[in-house]
Amino acid sequence: MKIPKRYYIQISDYRDSYVIPLLIAVATFVYIKLGASLFVPHVCLLEYLFHISCPLCNTTKSLEFLFQGDILKSIQISIVGISFILYMASLAIIKPLNKFHLLKIADNLFLIVLFFNFLIQNLCQ
User: Fold this and answer.
1) Residue 15 has pLDDT above 70, yes or no
2) How far apart are CA 58 and CA 37, in angstroms?
3) ∠ CA(54), CA(55), CA(58), 5° rounding?
4) Domain annotation covers residue 116
5) Which residue would you say has higher pLDDT here, 5 or 29?
6) Residue 2, in any domain of the structure
7) CA-CA distance, 125 to 10, in Å (whole number)?
8) How many separate domains does the chain show?
């Protein structure tokens, strides 16, 4: 029996849709709400090798406060938490519209936020 070509789903079928960003955002929410972040050890290669914080350090803690409704505390800990949620939401909106110039702007803005977070965490401590 020959399997039809479209019988199985490939991840590439969803690369241009809003499904992947939404799944990542929902998985992050569930991961934090279930308290799984409490049982995962903190491992950061940059911190271990070079004794500097990476741009994503404290993002999980920031997302925990964000999902508890404490937006100010979330931003004080790390701006990447709220930026991550906004970035995933923008991908979910922009991808189905095929506005690739807006996708490039969203990518660049998120990279700028990561860069400034890296500077803030390492120079202001």
Assistant:
1) no
2) 11
3) 85
4) yes
5) 29
6) no
7) 45
8) 1
